Amino acid sequence: MVQSRMIIVGQGLGMTQKSELLKIMEANQSPRKCLRRDRNHEKDPSSNSTEVMKQEIWSEFPGDLFETVVARLPVAAMFRFRTVCRKWYSMLGSDSFSQYYSEVPRGLPWFYTTIHENARNNAAMYDPSLTKWHHPSVPLARAKIIIPVASAGGLVCLLDILHSNFLICNPLTQSLKEIPCRSVQAWSGVSVGMVMNSGTSNEGYRVMWLGNDGNYEVYDSMKNTWSCSGTFPPSIKLPLRSRPIAVGSALYFMCAEPEGVLSYDVSTGIWRQFVIPLPLHLSDHTLAEFQGKVMLVGLLRKNAATCVCIWELQKMTLLWKEVDRMPNIWCLEFYGKHMKMTCLGNSGLLMLSLKARRTNRLVTYNLLNKEWQKVPDCMHPRSNRKRQLISCGTAFGPCPSALA
User: Fold this and answer.
1) What distance in Å separates the CA atoms of residue 317 and residue 331, rounded to the nearest whole number?
2) Order of strands across the sheet with 225-227?
3) Which residue of 35, 228, 287, 373 has the fewest C-beta atoms within 10 A of its own C-beta?
4) Which residues contact 379 (CB under 8 A, 6 or more apart)?
5) CATH: 2.120.10.80, 1.10.10.10, 1.10.8.420, 3.40.640.10. Which one for 111-396?
6) Which tens digit of pLDDT belongs to each residue from 19-64?
């Protein structure tokens, strides 16, 4: 990564006070051995003079150029940047910054998870680029039990289990919106999917729920209403397996009888069924998405051996083709154990929770470069536990301008 140096001037700040952004840039520079002349220069009192920047020049610095630069910063640095001054704090919520941000290619998704503990609404976000956990304080009532069930862009769909209603939040800005109650109040377990109407949340999003009885509805954020435009295919046996994935405006579900994939286009209201046999000896499998392709991840069990495998759906043959599997040295840790796998995020970068007796492992898999990485333990600052148990989660694209 090419690093650049720049000088940022904020109104109302003293020249001796460094901005948080500059601190981050300095911290990211590789340590190097100081030359003797540099050390002598630091000891010279006459070299401590502060460079005077001319107000008549920097006061005319184009504001849109600031937005262009900030839109290309890492997410963590972007939020530290807000501490410079009020003007820059409000910049992240402007329409122009949202446009600049949408034009910049984004990096790895983050993961929004909930922590299994007696305390309710304990959330944790994982930044894979820095391999670091963050602990947001989403403004939720303590009486609610909230879990993440879907995501699209920079937004996460939360489910209030006790009241059976949905909330939409931006985990970065901690903004929260409760969407209207569903017209169908029956609650027998649901599959929930979410898609964006376009590349940004400014043009709205849609949330779909599908019950075990075949009832379903779609929420349109632009209309702020639920609607149903069709009937569920009677040939499909419910309930469906795993969490749905989004490819464009279509949601893909995994069905068991017959084995295969079921898709629903939220824009057209059309259902499509694809009969696709699963690989042998497969368990705990779920769908994933990568660059518009439908993927499959699951545990392959044979005798006492267990391995995590990745498949890609071939469009021409409608068959699953294995494209990668977990390194053998990692799989040896699972030998002879009854492993259970849960996929906490399934868009480009997978987060997998692997559990057995006395074994609890979190790993990520990058579908682009086929890289496996172990996730560091989540240490919540308000908990007495040395190690937190992640109960559920979803991947989202961190975006400070995403609006619920």
Assistant:
1) 30
2) 190-196, 205-211, 216-220, 225-227
3) 35
4) 133, 386, 387, 388
5) 2.120.10.80
6) 333 333 334 444 444 444 454 445 454 444 456 667 777 777 776 7
What's the rounded Cα separation, in Å, for the pair 256 and 245?
16
Query: How far, in Å, CA of 91 to CA of 82, rounded?
Result: 8
Tokens 């705990």 correspond to: 284
CB 195 within 8 A of CB 205: yes
CATH 2.120.10.80-classified regions of the chain: 111-396
The C-alpha atoms of residue 357 and residue 339 are separated, in whole angstroms, by: 8
∠ CA 341-111-356, nearest 5°, is 20
63-70 vs 95-103: helix crossing angle, rounded to 10: 40
pLDDT > 80? residue 126? yes
In sequence order, what are the residues at sequence separation of 6 or more whose Cβ sits closer than 8 angstroms to the Cβ of residue 264? 208, 210, 216, 250, 251, 253, 270, 271, 272
Per-residue pLDDT at 371: 95
pLDDT for 309 equals 96
Encode pLDDT of 139-171 as tens digits.
655 556 788 999 998 899 998 877 678 999 998
| Alpha carbon distance 179, 161 (integer Å) | 14
Higher pLDDT, 119 or 318: 318
At residue 140, the pLDDT reads 59
260 CB contacts (<8 Å, ≥6 apart)? 254, 273, 274, 275, 276, 277
How many of the other CB atoms lie within 10 Å of CB of 128? 19
Residue with tokens 């949408």: 102
Give the bridge partners for 226, in sequence order: 219
Lowest mean per-residue pLDDT among 25-29, 82-86, 103-107: 25-29
Question: What does the block give as tokens for 245?
Answer: 């994935």
Residue (of 135, 102, 101) closest to 117 by Cα position: 135
Q: Please enumerate in sequence order all residues whose Cβ is within 8 A of that of 285, keeping only pairs 6 or more positions apart, or say none.
A: 241, 242, 254, 278, 296, 297, 298, 299
